Amino acid sequence: MLRIGVLTGGGDVPGLNPCIKQIVNRAVDAGHEVFGIRRGWAGLLDYRLDEKNQEQLHKWVMPLDKQRVRTVDRTGGTFLHTSRTNPSSVQLDSVPEHLADMEVPHHKDKHNRDVGDYTEHVMRVLEHLGIDVLIPIGGDDTLSYGERMHREGVKVVAIPKTMDNDVYGTDYCIGFSTAVTRSVEFIHNLRTSAGSHERIAVVELFGRNSGETSLIAAYLAGVDRAIISEVPFDPHRLAELIMEDKATNPSNYAMVTISEGAHLIEGEIIETGEADAYGHKKLGGIGAVLGSVLKDLTHENIIYQQVAYLMRSGAPDSLDLMVAANYAQMAMSLVEQGRFGRMVALQRGLYTDINLSTIMQGIKRVNVAELYDVGQYRPKVRHVFGMPMFLM
Length: 392
Known about the structure:
Rossmann fold; alpha/beta; seven-stranded mixed sheet; four-stranded parallel sheet
């Protein structure tokens, strides 16, 4: 019998709950125990080894069985909750009270902040809980600490999820299909207002530094222009193109999508707030900037819409349900085979697994040369033979 710990970290996406359910059901059928670690890596960082109150302990770690997960797949998000905690990079003013006197290695993060590495405490908690295998479900940030755990000797099998679909080494991450589906739906809905008022609609989409959501949503929804994170844009050129689109549209409107990580030529990415434990500040607002610039250049009225969290809210679509369930089955197969330090993946339409360290070896971005017309600011999809289903 194994005791398996499962956690979800980073942003929530549709498909997490079905994935957890499949892990629990298969593990229980095989005679294993499953513990849900709550709030991502924070569940292990904030766990008090000297705590005796079980109710308090269940705030961070909870046993999972078939009854507990019976209906969780009917909703989106993660019932285990999530966080962007990185135990190897904890700011001094964020150290849990029970760890205040613990001596740990300190270093400077990418923003020159003093941070402490509390991995030793995490290891003690895993040993205390008797966790034999850890299954983290997350994006490249969450899984990068999972890779650290593997290097520390923990048996890890990872599952990629992120609506940005930018984990290196896999063509698909849980949450991406639903995000694109929602984006296409909202774009089409917005056409009624844009057309009724004869305006230019600017739709800003999540995606961080990958323009895949903007590119694919624009491609599928037939949007006039798509601005992606990978290609700085000239607002004067874009304004000319948008006015041409508006003039040739019988309903006299035009639409453009823009990635939250996009920026003007010689401009900077818009970041706000304090950087998180992985060094990322909050993105967003470039759509409002673009809308303001287009209004000044074209003298047209603008509709600016951030789809934002609506892209990742609600129940998963059928594809995310299927991939989530299959990733869970693959992860449990790797556990049963004793193959650790692995991440489940999809590559060119086939389910497979890769070395977890692969996620640290590159950056996944839009293939601009193959899929984007830089001069026209729109998707350019011509050759799909031999390409992955989502082209990336």
